[in-house]
Amino acid sequence: MLQLNQVFLTFNEGTMDEKKALQDVHLDLKRGDFLTIIGSNGAGKSTLMNIISGSLVPDTGNVLIDGSPVTHLQEYKRAQLIGRVFQDPMAGTAPSMTIEENLAMAWSRNKKRGLKPGVSKKRKELFKEHLESLNLGLEDRLTAKVGLLSGGERQALSLLMATFTEPKILLLDEHTAALDPSRAELITSLTAEIVDKFQLTTLMVTHNMQQALDLGNRLIMMDKGQIIFDVDETEKQNLTIEKLLNEFQRIRGEKMASDKAVLG
After folding, report:
1. 201: helix, coil or strand?
2. Burial (CB count <10 Å: 0-12, 13-18, 19+), residue 77
3. Against a cut of 0.85, is the pTM above it?
4. Which of 31, 70, 41 is nearest to 54 (CA)?
């Protein structure tokens, strides 16, 4: 479903601020794989997501989605294939629009647009049905402005908007990091349910190592723009945070940066 072949990207090449953001990255995900991605700040995690989404173009290398090359496909066109939820709950929705208007926008992402109303009676019923699955009561607030929702409610709505059209690829970029623990737990649970329900091919960046171990069937560790550790489902079942830290030290010859966000 997703392939990255020999992807390189350098920022500010030839200057004092040159940084090798990605170095010879190879990745191959099957349909339905759920990959969690860990690494310290600056490891290249979000850059990898931006390469997949199309907001960045690699210097060299190829990106394929469902067998089709998309390396140079513009981001807005690639958005028909990709759903994405960002760390900031404000980023994935339009605050001045209502819940139903936001959902109508997301619903039309991979469909031909016409002059029909975006929110029809039939579509409202569909939106209500999907919102009910969140168990947040949002199905009774279709005409409420999204800007009035709490951070957790907005992130739940963003997750629904990113997934109910069943995209080829779902990108979750630290989507629980800005939430309080109870809301983060809710969104984590909803994520697992939705990904499993639609069997979505998913990549999730997280600073929380325990979350990375608990979710998904594959895991990669990044450092300095490289994938330095890649484990399948069988190996992942036996991993612990301590083993991950030891593996980093074995590969790099030094301890991973001991910051609370990384250790979760």
Report:
1. strand
2. exposed
3. yes
4. 70
| Cross-strand partners of 50 | none
> Any idea which residue has 């612990």 for tokens?
240
> Two tokens at 175?
């989507």
Residues 6+ apart with CB under 8 A from 137: none
Structural domains of the chain sorted by starting position, each given as residue range(s) with its CATH number in brackets: 2-93+149-263 (3.40.50.300)
**CA–CA dist 153, 148 (Å, integer):** 10
Residue 261 has φ and ψ, to the nearest 5°, of: -65, -40
Q: Decide the pairing of beta strands 34-38 and 2-11.
A: unpaired
Beta bridge partners of 8: 60
Residues 217-260 pLDDT 10s: 999 999 999 999 999 999 999 999 999 999 999 988 888 875 54
pLDDT, one tens digit per residue, over 57-115 is: 999 999 999 999 999 999 989 988 999 999 988 888 889 999 999 999 888 775 555 44
Q: Sort residue 224 into left (φ over 0), alpha (ψ -120 to 50) or beta.
A: left
Under a CB-based contact definition with an 8 Å cutoff, are residues 52 and 62 in contact?
no
Q: How far is Cα 106 from Cα 86, in angstroms, rounded to an integer?
A: 15
Q: Which of 226, 224, 228 is nearest to 249 (CA)?
A: 228
Please list the helix, strand and coil fractions of the chain in percent, rounded to the nearest 5, in that order.
Answer: 35, 25, 40
CB 200 within 8 A of CB 163: yes
Of the candidates 66, 87, 47, 114, the residue with the CA atom closest to the CA atom of residue 177: 87
Q: Partners of 64 in the beta sheet?
A: 3, 69
Confidence band, pLDDT 50/70/90 cuts, at residue 118:
low
Element (H, E) at 127: helix 121-132
